[in-house]
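Annex B. Sample input.
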Amino acid sequence: MQILLVEDDPKLAGFIRKGFLGEQINLEIAYDGLMGKRMCEQRKFDAIILDVNLPGINGFDLCRFIKDNWPQTPVMMLTALGMLQDKVLGFKAGADDYLTKPFEFEELLLRIKALARRGNNFSSTAKVLKVSDLMLDTDSQQVRRGDIAIELTKREYELLEYLMYNKGKIVSRTDILERVWNLHFDTNTNIIDVYINYLRRKIDKNFPEKLLHTIIGRGYTLREP
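Annex B, continued. Sample output.
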């Protein structure tokens, strides 16, 4: 499980990270809103935890940004602002949950696990994914680019589906290994490069606008031109 915490209190962030590691949950930390925004743009998270009073971009505005771009990503507000009007603002910004400080770690853990499961279930129910003129129907598993039907193998389809769910984001080799091949370690294989090339030949080669890009040293992204 990959969780992002945007929290400007290093002591609290360290406490949460230590607890999550004990539960085999990987926690990335951003110490201000701008850093949190950049990290959201760079990779996919199963859930995001936001403080409200953050330097750079406050938590409410960052939540709106996340929901505008990746509505399937669950967001929890974790803040000392516990008045009803604060909670209303949080939910209006798109938050899926709201937990006030001080909090019990066990409650935070249970809530974030539930949110992550909900986000994964939401993603799996999307019917049609689109990036520019590339369309993937998750019911029929048909793929088209413009008026042209594209035939994919099972693994090519799974890789494309994962990239399209994360359109505009950079997904790392580790992310792909875990989500598409269900491997939780780097085998030093070039299998990902091979399948990325397979996809390129099928969805990009005969089209003027290229959608699938390699970001050297970081991973791959599928984005509109």
